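It is worth pausing here to work through a concrete case rather than discussing structure prediction in the abstract. The textbook approach is simple: state the sequence, then state the predicted structure, then interpret. We follow exactly that order.
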Amino acid sequence: MPLIDKLLFSDSVPTVMRKSLDMMSTRQSLISSNISNVDTPGFKASDIDFQAQLREALGSKGSLNLRATNAKHFGPSTSDIGDLTPDPFEEDAAAKSNGNNVDIDNEMAKMAENQIMYNATVQLMMKRGGTIRATVTELPQQ
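Step two, the predicted structure:
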């Protein structure tokens, strides 16, 4: 691994952010599929709950499970985070007469929320990269 990768991706934060982007991208595809099938008889809307999966990987109830990486150093384990995969579930919304349970207003709200979260995560990643770049070059942040 090149030195810059070690500097940028040596702790759990970048792993969480990258996995978050992957999951949000998958969620966007699921929501898009739900919207495109709004009139398909018998179609059941699906979604993923990445936040619950992330909480479980980091440790229950918001606490972090720590592991020793060195006799003198401690840090959170990122192996569980890297292994997260989307776990879609069928939404339990009431079905219409044709068996379809897609609520277009709900799906559009979820899509907007997901897009905002995605953009915020990208901005955080860029800010983190700018901070590290400023540290390495000893120049002020842009």
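Step three, interpretation. The longest strand covers residues 66-70. The chain has one domain: 3-137.
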